[in-house]
Amino acid sequence: GENVEQHPSTLSVQEGDSAVIKCTYSDSASNYFPWYKQELGKRPQLIIDIRSNVGEKKDQRIAVTLNKTAKHFSLHITETQPEDSAVYFCAATPSGGSYIPTFGRGTSLIVHP
Amino acid sequence: GAVVSQHPSRVICKSGTSVKIECRSLDFQATTMFWYRQFPKQSLMLMATSNEGSKATYEQGVEKDKFLINHASLTLSTLTVTSAHPEDSSFYICSAVETGTSNYEQYFGPGTRLTVT
Q1: Which residues of B85-108 are buried (b: 16+ CB within 10 A; e: fewer)?
Q2: Which of A2, A62, A101, B86 has the most C-beta neighbours closer than 10 Å?
Q3: Distance between CA atoms of A92 and A34, rounded to whole angstroms?
């Protein structure tokens, strides 16, 4: 089955700095890679996603890059703000219609004002 | 946008009793829903895949007789925790995938905090 590794587990940055979270996956059949933000006690919220036919996607301060050959993808947050503080999860979803993602362990991002 | 509701949002029950959690897709149909369990400071752990009109598919290590799943309609899946014990205390989250779309996006419910005393 799929195995997703996520690093770092904790990331502490100053407001205004950039934050980068990296994930690797093992199943070359995975072709959908969402990133979720989860605040304490709340549901995961999709913040950005990328499909395997695209190498990079950007939405304002958030960007995701995908390297299919190396089987890794990264989340980039620029100009971080205290409200970006949360746990971020990456996931990899295989093709074939099962829709079952494998989640990374999560990264706790702390943005200090 | 697609909305998934979950009820109740939190529940406290006594050891040995059963608790039912509902997951509803409010503005779309969902042939497939997922049930996750999340312990503090941990990732989402998939418990089972719920398919409308058929038996749920459970992940390895999840007791199907303890966690009963019923997906009786295209907008409702229920998870019943039977004979609950304190170790079942957790945050239970459902998600749904819109029927008939090639979009893999999962829409998550707000979660249910279960505390077993």
Answers
A1: eeebbbbbbbbbbbeeeeebbbbb
A2: A101
A3: 7
- Name residues 51-80 of chain A within 8 A of B (Cβ): none
Reported residue count of chain A is 113
CB of B92 closer than 8 Å to CB of B114: yes
Residue B105 sits at φ, ψ, to 5 deg, of -60, 135
A104 contacts on B by Cβ (under 8 Å)? 43
What is the phi/psi pair of residue A87, to 5°?
-100, 130
The C-alpha of B112 sits at a distance from chain A's nearest C-alpha, in angstroms, of 9
Is residue A52's pLDDT more than 90?
A: no
| Residues on chain B touching A99 (C-beta within 8 angstroms) | 32, 97, 104, 106
| Residue of A39, A43, A45, A98 to mutate for B, most B C-beta atoms under 10 A | A43
Pairing of strands B4-7, A102-103: unpaired
Query: Over 70: is that where the pLDDT of A96 sits?
Result: no
- For chain A, give the mean pLDDT: 94
Q: CA of B7 to nearest chain A CA: how many angstroms apart?
A: 13
Q: How far apart are CA A17 and CA A13, in angstroms?
A: 6
Say if CB B82 and CB B18 are below 8 A apart: yes
Q: What are phi and psi of A12, to 5 degrees?
A: -115, 125
Q: What is the DSSP letter of A29?
A: T
